[in-house]
Design brief:
Layout (H helix, E strand, L loop, with lengths): L8 E6 L3 H4 L1 H8 L5 E5 L3 H9 L7 E6 L1 H15 L6 E5 L8 H10 L3 E6 L7 H9 L12 E5 L6 H6 L8 H10 L3
Parallel strand pairs: 1-2, 1-3, 3-4, 4-5, 5-6
Helix pairs in contact: 3-4, 4-5
Length: about 180
């Protein structure tokens, strides 16, 4: 992993389903070497340590899917408390069993730029949508707080589609990541 403080560090965090479908890991493997690092939704301590080890001033960009989105949000709050803010947080159809307004407000204060993507596609009984419903979807709760709230017509498991969906006249989650990488966020 390169330590160039001029290049943003991208952390991609997969949810529980990523162990089977590897949608987030697949994206990370397609990026140029040194561009990103992959974490499981269970790796919050490892993500926190890796982010804190980045050179001072290097932009941190966190993208998390499902339970990985919730974990990336928690780590964003912890990094802000430690004086190492995340430049951009992208939560992709995140889930959490108990989601409070206090947590969302703390997240809003911790993340200078926050994009939340909501999966609105697929049948309600589609397997990944059922699993997300059991996990406790954030739904529309982040809409009034996030810098961008994207309702994407993809099922919960379709990470690439969710991240790449560009609403009319707007940016996709990936566009936000690219803008943060070039300083145009």
């Amino acid at each position: 992993m390169q330590n160039d403080p001029e290049q943003p560090w991208l952390a991609l965090v997969g949810g529980m389903g990523d162990a089977t479908f590897a949608a987030v890991r697949s994206l990370q493997e397609m990026l140029p070497p040194g561009r990103s690092e992959y974490f499981s939704h269970l790796d919050d301590g490892r993500l926190l340590r890796a982010a804190m080890a980045r050179p001072p001033g290097q932009k941190l960009v966190l993208v998390g899917h499902s339970w990985g989105g919730e974990m990336a949000a928690r780590v964003t709050i912890r990094l802000a408390r430690a004086g190492r803010p995340v430049a951009l947080l992208v939560t992709v159809d995140p889930v959490k069993r108990v989601l409070t307004q206090r947590f969302l407000k703390e997240l809003r204060a911790a993340a200078p730029k926050w994009v939340n993507i909501l999966a609105t596609g697929g049948d309600a009984l589609e397997r990944s949508n059922v699993i997300a419903a059991i996990g406790g979807p954030w739904g529309g709760k982040p809409e009034p707080l996030a810098d961008a709230f994207i309702a994407a017509p993809y099922a919960h498991r379709e990470f690439a589609g969710l991240l790449g969906f560009r609403p009319a006249g707007g940016r996709s989650g990936w566009d936000w990541v690219q803008a943060a990488s070039t300083g145009a966020a």
